[in-house]
Design goal:
heterodimer; A: mainly alpha; 6 helices; 76% helix; globular; B: alpha+beta; Nucleotidyltransferase, domain 5; six-stranded mixed beta sheet
């Protein structure tokens, strides 16, 4: 098993499964069967989301190796990484209210995307080599990076709404 | 255009096998009902050939006097007893009414539970009751046209409706004696009517993105869908369940009041007249550059440009919601292949113009925007009721607003995020705050704001009987389940002791099941005997369905999944049900028997579901998706 995902294949499988188990397929069945279908369809949706989203996929792969990755926040001991993150956060807070906020946000966003992609590829090779403790560390970094991207998007939304 | 389907001679499906299924669009301004005939969707008109039914109910002291066009005639003469735009109040609490209050010229009362009611000469009526009158009128129209009882209906709701508004819609249908197959989001219904899933797709992996912009009389929805062969997948939805063409009317009416120096103190009749003039001026300006208005002994001119100044802010609000939804779906405007316009208010050239500008596309509106939603609902109803077994259409919708619970300090803890595909189930664990704490109260809210007070309160319930433990050692698991209709179910369980509390989320201003039953029994529109006969007929249909279904399942999987003794047990239960079905005159007795067979067959149903899951996943593992 590897980290890389064939998104198209995942989507085709997902739709095929929902075509069989979605509650609409059970509309004329008994209430009990309808409830079963709702549960099954909810499980399929959850599986799809878990695999599709990089962060949850990484968590899930480590859980399969009996590492508890379900916690909301992990801690990384990589001092340089934490320092970089702090600088990025500072940059983000300075953008708010600055004159060329939109442009600055775009370049920060590109940087953040690159960081996230790099961490993900590190995770991929660590996972491949079964270096799960290192992969666990990368997962913690991934959480930082993705939270940061979310915050950028939020600010972008805020600026657009004005 | 859909082609007429003609069967081979001698092989035409027997008429009695076809079920009566309809789609109902319960609108703010107009409502309508549609069905599928010979493979294409048709609106069922009234006896005068009119498609629409104005969503207006007129009350007199004995009760409802009329619904629809007739009721609308009382608008100006008897405004307080002529209820229109009731959808704006459906599933709302007293607090919401205050903000909507000045746009709705009614007098309100609220009962103990806090559900607002409208004062009429007949007494106080709830928005659910009023809506059920409209639904009843439509189902009556459909039964007449189809020549028999309805087997089920798909009822459309704005995609942005929250749980309380959806539940209220479903309650109104139940009250009208309609079996609800599904609540369907209006934009999704429109996409179905356009058949956008079938266009230009050769294989399973081709797909395209479509935005459905739906501006009705009182609600606005935007849905971003990804379409592939036979699949409608909603990526994100947004909107405003209190913004629509009505608000344009009010903006114009306010302008008229200022221009004519009428002051603030207009009586209800004058207000209604002003609104009606505003509405017709708005409609006329869709055709002409300016319109001359004669009103309350004065006359003046309204130009398009002036009207645009009055309504542009409102339209801009809808565009903002469109942008938000695109962001939620993580797509840019230029990757959208098609924009579809739905809802009567999109007839205004200004709306189409601004939407076209935002998406950089000429919007599509080849199906009448007033009819398209009902037509899509009819198509879905036809599939759900089993008339169209060849159609493998699949709808994947999302929850429009996040669901969460209240935590310390009045903050919301989100449990299910907006735009999550439904059905969805999530569970979360909580613990006790104090030593020996034996109860915990849980407050479920819906909305995307941080503070509980800014979100919609859906329900409060208490979990009692937690065994006394040290603070922090009890484990309370709260499970949320949202079904395909977007309706929420919550249950809570203390994991170390198994204490369980299950509630169906019914907002404090909604109706309880027993209230609905009571209201159904009190309903004046059915004579007592009629109701008995109807109820018996419904149970017979249910029994037939069960007999047929279960027999087929046993023939297919019985020997593989059941032990001999289990199989015999089920066979006996079926025989007994058949006997009751053929002889019983009492619908309660028959219902009880159906329930028994249902219970007896649950284990079998569960095993069949497991077997088909195993089959669907046979030979596949996570490795197949992950390279």
């Amino acid at each position: 098993m590897a980290w890389e995902l064939d998104v198209e294949q995942l989507e085709v499988r997902f739709r095929a499964l929902q075509k069989t188990f979605h509650p609409d397929r059970y509309a004329s069945k008994s209430d009990f069967e309808k409830r079963l279908a709702v549960q099954t369809a909810a499980t399929i949706n959850q599986a799809y989301e878990t695999i599709k989203t990089p962060l949850s996929r990484a968590q899930y792969l480590l859980e399969l190796e009996d590492l508890d990755a379900s916690q909301e926040t992990h801690i990384t001991s990589d001092g340089q990484f934490l320092m970089d993150q702090m600088l990025l956060r500072e940059a983000l807070s300075e953008i708010r209210g600055s004159e060329n906020a939109k442009e600055a946000l775009v370049s920060l966003s590109i940087e953040a995307q690159q960081t996230a992609a790099k961490i993900q590829s590190e995770f991929a090779s660590q996972y491949q080599q079964k270096a799960y403790n290192k992969a666990f560390e990368s997962l913690a970094k991934m959480q930082f990076a993705i939270k940061f991207i979310d915050d950028i998007n939020e600010l972008e939304a805020e600026l657009e709404d004005l | 255009m859909a082609l007429l389907q003609i069967s081979e001679p001698g092989q035409s499906p027997q008429p009695h096998q076809r079920k009566n299924a309809v789609g109902i669009d319960l609108g703010t301004t107009n409502s309508l009902v549609a069905t599928v005939r010979s493979g294409s969707e048709v609106i069922l008109p009234d006896e005068q050939g009119r498609n629409l039914l104005p969503s207006v109910v007129h009350y007199e002291s004995e009760g409802v006097s009329c619904v629809g066009y007739e009721a609308a005639e009382h608008n100006s003469s008897d405004p307080l007893n002529t209820l229109s735009s009731i959808k704006r109040l459906l599933g709302r609490g007293v607090a919401d009414i205050k903000t909507l209050g000045d746009t709705l010229p009614y007098e309100f009362t609220s009962d103990e539970g806090g559900m607002p009611k409208i004062k009429t000469v007949h007494g106080a009526v709830s928005p659910i009751q009023v809506s059920s009158e409209i639904l009843r009128k439509l189902s009556g129209r459909a039964e007449l046209a189809l020549g028999g009882m309805l087997d089920g209906a798909v009822i459309t709701v704005p995609a942005y409706f929250d749980d309380a508004q959806r539940q209220a819609t479903k309650d109104a249908a139940t009250l009208a004696g309609i079996k609800v197959l599904r609540l369907l989001n209006e934009p999704t219904a429109a996409a179905i009517a356009y058949g956008l899933d079938a266009e230009e797709f050769d294989n399973e992996s081709q797909q395209r993105l479509v935005a459905v912009y739906d501006l009705g009389g009182g609600t606005f929805d935007i849905s971003i869908l990804r379409l592939s062969k036979g699949v409608f997948e909603v990526l994100a939805t947004g909107g405003d369940s209190a913004l629509g063409g009505d608000d344009f009317d009010h903006a114009i009416a306010d302008w008229l009041r200022t221009e004519l120096e009428l002051g603030e103190t207009l009586d209800v009749v004058e207000q209604r007249i002003l609104l009606e003039v505003a509405k017709s001026a708005k409609e006329e300006l869709s055709q002409n550059e300016q319109v001359e208005l004669d009103i309350l002994d004065s006359s003046l001119v309204l130009t398009r440009d002036t009207m645009y100044q009055l309504i542009d802010d409102l339209i801009d609000q809808t565009l903002l919601a469109c942008k938000r939804s695109m962001r939620d779906a993580n797509i840019k405007a230029d990757s959208i292949h098609e924009v579809v316009l739905v809802g009567g208010s999109t007839r205004m050239p200004r709306v189409a113009e601004k939407v076209s500008e935002l998406f950089g596309l000429e919007p599509k509106c080849t199906i009448d925007p007033d009819l398209v939603v009902a037509m899509g609902a009819a198509k879905q109803a036809d599939v759900l009721v089993g008339n169209n077994s060849t159609d493998d259409m699949l709808l994947l919708d999302v929850i429009p607003l996040s669901l969460g619970i209240e935590t310390m300090g009045g903050l919301t803890e989100k449990i299910i995020h907006r735009n999550t595909t439904i059905p969805v189930a999530k569970a979360q664990e909580f613990t006790t705050f104090k030593d020996g704490q034996t109860a915990m109260s849980i407050h479920v809210v819906q909305g995307d704001r941080e503070l509980v007070s800014d979100c919609r309160s859906l329900a409060r319930f208490e979990l009692r009987g937690i065994p006394p433990m040290v603070a922090g050692s009890a484990k309370i698991q709260v499970s949320y389940q949202v079904d395909a209709d977007g309706l929420l179910n919550v249950s809570a369980r203390e994991l170390t002791s198994g204490v369980e509390s299950r509630i169906e989320v019914k907002p404090s201003y909604g109706l309880s099941d027993s209230e609905i039953t009571q209201m159904l029994q009190d309903s004046v529109s059915y004579a007592r005997d009629d109701m008995q006969a109807r109820a018996l007929r419904e149970q017979q249909v249910e029994a037939d369905r069960m007999l047929e279904d279960l027999q087929a399942a046993m023939d297919k999987d019985g020997s593989a999944l059941l032990a001999n003794s289990e199989l015999q047990c089920l066979q006996v239960a079926l025989q007994e049900l058949q006997q009751f079905r053929d002889t019983s005159e009492d619908h309660r007795q028959l219902a009880a028997q159906i329930e028994i067979v249902g219970k007896t067959s649950e284990e079998f149903a569960a095993r069949r579901m497991d077997a088909s899951i195993k089959q669907a996943l046979a030979g596949l593992s996570l490795d197949d998706a992950l390279k």
